[in-house]
TrEMBL record:
InterPro entries noted in UniProt: Glyas_Bleomycin-R_OHBP_Dase (IPR029068), Glyas_Fos-R_dOase_dom (IPR004360), VOC_core (IPR037523)
Protein name: VOC family protein
Entry superkingdom: Bacteria
Source organism of the structure: Brotonthovivens ammoniilytica
CDD domains recorded: VOC
Pfam family, one: Glyoxalase
Residue ranges of domain VOC in the record: 6-147
Length: 159
């Protein structure tokens, strides 16, 4: 029995919610709605639509978040989630558009990673996907992937 339909959302803390929203809007996503304790309060949670039924939840660290949250969005020793991945169907065009929008595309999530200016700058990973990376304003690495041919994902999870 399959218990889950899809990845529903990834929740990220952010230091500057306006910068984070602007970044994700440059990726082509939209703020779907936000949550606040009562009308007039600053929102404590923003739902960003990636695709139908898939979201990124942004929670500012400064403000009245009713849930426990850190003082700054930073990596801690006990933090286990370190990135999420977005799939594209046209890596070459995606790289071009992100560069035009001022989003730095890189070969890896390492701080000194080489820039990516075209599909010729990236590699095909062991699972059969083209891979490159971007980093959001709070340092969250985002893996960008395109499945090429018979990937391991397609082999082990056919449509």
């Amino acid at each position: 029995m399959k218990l889950f339909k899809s990845l529903f959302h990834v929740s990220l803390f952010c230091n500057d919610v306006k910068k984070s929203i602007e970044f994700y809007e440059k990726l082509g996503f939209e703020v779907l709605f936000y949550l606040q304790e009562k009308e007039g309060d600053e929102p404590w949670d923003y739902y960003i639509k990636v695709a139908h039924g898939q979201y990124i939840e942004l929670q500012p660290v400064k403000g009245d978040n009713p849930h426990p949250h850190p003082d700054t969005a930073a990596y801690y020793d006990n933090q286990t989630a370190w990135h999420f991945a977005l799939e594209t169907e046209d890596m070459a065009q995606m790289i071009q558009v992100l560069n035009e929008r001022g989003i730095e595309v890189v070969k890896s999530p390492e701080p000194d990673a080489e820039r990516v200016y075209s599909i010729d700058d990236i590699f095909l990973s062991g699972d059969g996907c083209y891979v490159c990376w971007i980093v959001d304003p709070d340092g969250t690495p985002i893996e960008l992937m395109e499945q090429v041919g018979e990937t391991k994902q397609r082999m082990y999870d056919p449509a």
